[in-house]
Specification:
Helices cover 33% and strands 23% of the residues. By secondary structure, the chain is α+β, with helices and mostly antiparallel strands. A four-stranded antiparallel β-sheet has the order 3-5-4-6. Strands 1-2 form a two-stranded antiparallel ribbon.
């Protein structure tokens, strides 16, 4: 995995006010991004945890994305296995976009159930709570 993606993971995860966040990205955004600015907690989580993978690695974007997803999955399973989590990787013409959020029954899902309806390739990893 690239140095840039490894740096994002270096601080691990943090749970703040019911939101599971990549701590590195949370710390970078906490002064100017507040959950009150979003319709729900899922919107807040996907914004804070979202980034373009290409910005953090020089090449092999898909490989780096998959390695990052695997590492995030391990972190969630190690410390937050009680929180159902969805990891989303989507691809546009030139870039890969990563985000993750807690699965909440009371909120509108981040993605439609029919992944075939998306024009961009999308991969979803659901980590079911233990």
């Amino acid at each position: 995995m690239s140095v840039g993606l490894t740096k994002i993971l270096s601080d691990g995860l943090v749970c703040r006010s019911g939101c599971l966040l990549l701590k590195n990205l949370y710390e970078a955004n906490k002064r100017h991004v507040r959950k009150e600015h979003f319709e729900d907690l899922t919107g807040y989580e996907t914004f804070v945890n979202g980034f373009v993978v290409n910005d953090f690695c020089g090449d092999n974007y898909l490989r780096n994305s998959l390695l990052f997803i695997n590492a995030v999955s391990e972190l969630v399973n190690k410390s937050y296995s009680h929180i159902p989590t969805e990891i989303v990787l989507s691809k546009s013409d030139r870039s890969y976009h990563f985000t993750m959020h807690t699965l909440r029954v009371a909120e509108t899902p981040y993605l439609a159930n029919d992944l075939e309806s998306y024009t961009e390739p999308t991969m979803v990893v659901r980590l079911i709570a233990n």
